């Protein structure tokens, strides 16, 4: 996968990885925000994580209904935990 094709900067790669790890963030949200399909996200994760971390992530998301918009329970109405985005003070 060619990351230059997408003109990604390090914070964007970091955010895609963060979104991919989140249980409630579907792959469709990553595609909507960054243009990465599920297979491209998997390739990005493979290229940027240590092998053990990548295998743990794949085992975690394999078959997880919340990672796919079409098969997730309609009661899951948000893509992130309420405490996920914390405001930093002091800077």
Give a description of the structure.
Helix 1 packs across helix 3. Helices cover about 45% and strands about 0% of the residues. The mean pLDDT is about 75. It has one domain. With about 90 residues, it is mainly alpha-helical. The relative contact order is 0.17. The longest helix has 12 residues. The chain has four helices and no strands. This is TIGR03643 family protein.
**Uncertain spans, ≥5 residues at pLDDT below 50?**
none
Task: Report the total helices.
Answer: 4
What's the domain count? 1
- The coarse overall form would be globular
Instruction: Report, as a whole number of angstroms, the end-to-end distance.
Output: 36 Å
Supply Rg: 14 Å
Q: Into which percent range does the helicity of residues fall?
A: 40-55%
Mean pLDDT: 77
Organism: Paraglaciecola mesophila
Pfam families: DUF2805
InterPro entries: CHP03643
Protein name: TIGR03643 family protein
């Amino acid at each position: 996968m060619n990351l230059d094709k997408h003109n990604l900067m390090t914070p964007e790669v970091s955010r895609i990885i963060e979104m991919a790890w989140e249980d409630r963030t579907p792959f469709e949200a990553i595609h909507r925000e960054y243009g990465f399909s599920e297979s491209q996200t998997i390739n990005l994760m493979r290229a940027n994580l240590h092998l053990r971390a990548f295998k743990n992530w794949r085992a975690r998301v394999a078959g997880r209904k919340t990672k796919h918009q079409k098969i997730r329970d309609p009661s899951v109405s948000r893509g992130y935990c309420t405490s996920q985005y914390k405001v930093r003070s002091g800077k």
